[in-house]
Amino acid sequence: MRRLLSLLPLCLSMPIAFAAADLAGTRTVRLHGQGGEVKVLGTVTFKPQGEGYAFEYKLDPAVFEDRFLAMRPFGCLDGEKISLCHFPYAAPQKITVGDLTDLEYQFMFLQKPRASVSLDPENGVYYEMTLIDGRIEGVLREVDMDPIIAPDGYQARPIKRADLFVVDTSGKWLPRLTID
């Protein structure tokens, strides 16, 4: 009986280890629209590191249109009425099965009306991610990016879960992100 009990922690950790093993390699990042529209943003390569993964995101520059907004360059995706301007944050590039935050920070955007030349930090877009069956899925959340734009000293993760606004995504452009 003692031997069986000593194996219990190993057995309980196996599903997590197997789920984590599924991430190794290069995967494609896509944003999905309501009507089946798909935008391929680039690739993410995951390499095992300790109990998690180091990752490298390679943006496909052909997908984004270069814009100079708010005194800095942005790569923007244009929809019919909305533009999403890529706003990654220089967070560490390491994740674990239970914490995908650093990866989420690579896929932040500022949303603006397509015709507008200004950006409002209150119009942030953040894809909150979860690991599901060996793939990563993200759901659009809205966020005020002010903690990043006007920081109070450096913080590795200035946006907290409590800062994310759950929104009705039925009327949103590109409300879903996948990495598979």
- Give the percentage of residues in beta strands: 35-45%
Number of strands: 12
User: Which class best fits the helix and strand makeup?
Assistant: alpha+beta
Q: Helix segment count? A: 3
Instruction: Please mark out the parts with pLDDT under 50 across 5 or more consecutive residues, or reply none.
Output: 1-21
The helix-strand sequence is: HEEEEEEEHEEEHEE
C-alpha-based Rg, rounded: 18 Å
Mean pLDDT: 85
Euclidean distance between termini CA atoms: 42 Å
Main beta sheet strand tally, sense and closure: 12 strands, antiparallel
Coarse morphology: globular
Fraction of residues in H or I helices: 10-25%
Total individual domains: 1
Describe the protein:
Helices cover 16% and strands 42% of the residues. It is α+β, with helices and mostly antiparallel strands. The protein has one domain. Strand 2 (38-49) and strand 3 form a beta hairpin. The radius of gyration is 18 Å and the shape is globular.
